[in-house]
Amino acid sequence: MSLSFAPAALLPLIIALLAGAAVPFQAGSNAALGRLLGHPLWATLVSLGVSVLMVIPALLVLRAPLPQLGALAQAPWWAWLGGVAGVAYITAALMLTPRLGAAGFIVCVIAGQVLSSLLIDQWGLMGLAQRPVNGLRLAGVGLIVLGMFVVQWGTSTTR
């Protein structure tokens, strides 16, 4: 394993960190939408609609070429899981964030992401390179799962 601290190597890490920092705000805002609209699925629909409204101007500004829609017929079955996962995440976030708190929900999300990512890496699923599980990786994931329980244990359930 090689770690590089050159600015060019750090930029993707910083962008990923900032993207991750936005997720608790997404969970909180979706939870508020759920309360306002009276049902989690309406809030999910509104959230995804706002996403579409944000992507369209970005496509126009970046002058993204039109997609090759015929290629969709060649897509593997799992290529559609992103949309399914998005609905599942948004709905879970708006239902569970008020109950678990932002940190409680997000730490569970992170633990779940890391566990499933380890499986994807192990078998090179979804067209990604295979990166076998080893003791150090398992130890790191174990610490994350332990951290999830510590955060939940340390969260007061009384208001």
Explain how this protein is built.
InterPro entries: YdcZ. One of its GO terms (cellular component) is plasma membrane. The chain crosses the membrane at residues 41-65, 77-96, 102-123, 135-154. Keywords: Membrane, Transmembrane, Transmembrane helix. This is EamA-like transporter family protein. The chain is mainly alpha-helical. It has one domain. Helices cover 73% and strands 0% of the residues. The protein is built from 4 helices and no strands. It has helices at residues 7-37, 40-61, 81-123, 135-154. The radius of gyration is 19 Å and the shape is globular.
Number of strands: 0
Mean pLDDT: 89
Q: How does the helix and strand content classify structurally?
A: mainly alpha
- State the order of secondary-structure elements, H for helix, E for strand: HHHH
In what range is the share of β-strand residues? under 5%
- Inertia-based shape: globular
Helical content stands at over 70%
Radius of gyration over C-alpha positions, nearest whole angstrom: 19 Å
Largest sheet: none
The figure for the number of domains is 1
Which ranges are low-confidence, i.e. pLDDT below 50, for 5 or more consecutive residues?
none
Distance between the amino and carboxyl termini? 46 Å
| Count of alpha/pi helices | 4
Fold blueprint:
Elements: H1 7-37, H2 40-61, H3 81-123, H4 135-154
Helix pairs in contact: 1-2, 1-3, 2-3, 3-4
